[in-house]
Fold:
Amino acid sequence: MGLDVSKLKEIVVQYSGKKGMLIPILQKIQSIYGYVPAQAIDVVAEELSISPVRIYGVLTFYKQFYLKPRGKHIIKVCQGTACHVMGGKEILEYLEDKMSIREGQTTEDGFFSLERVACLGCCGMAPVVMIDDNFYGRCSVQKIEDLLKRFRQ
Ligand code: FES
Structure:
């Protein structure tokens, strides 16, 4: 499906005339589409008169950007030291098996994306999993299984 090019151009225009606006433009695009589509890269490159390769360089350098659509729900499994010690690795492996994807991937139905994160900042609740904007502490495989069922209902 093609994107609305005029909408993309509007976004770029909002930032025009200012220096160092590439990242804010890409962030804005990602906030709208959930990722930065290839077509958007072409439009931004043309509007800013910079090479698409340079934009790809920025997108792949910063971990905050996604080049593919993400799932409806984002599952982040903490792999920081405290969570790792408390079973975070087993939870991540369980989720990879259960959903038949690897971390960094999205289920075929587009329902879940699975991500590994370094520390969610609440180590006292280890192991921690975040689904969308909610934190789930003292997780176990059983707790995660119940959560997945709830999300699927
Ligand atoms: S190590 Fe997992 S929240 Fe800090």
Summary: The pocket of FE2/S2 (inorganic) cluster is lined by residues 78, 80-83, 119-123, 126, 128 (CB under 6 Å). Residues 8 and 40 are 7 Å apart (CA to CA). The domain at 73-152 is CATH 3.40.30.10 (Glutaredoxin). The first strand starts at residue 73 and ends at 78.
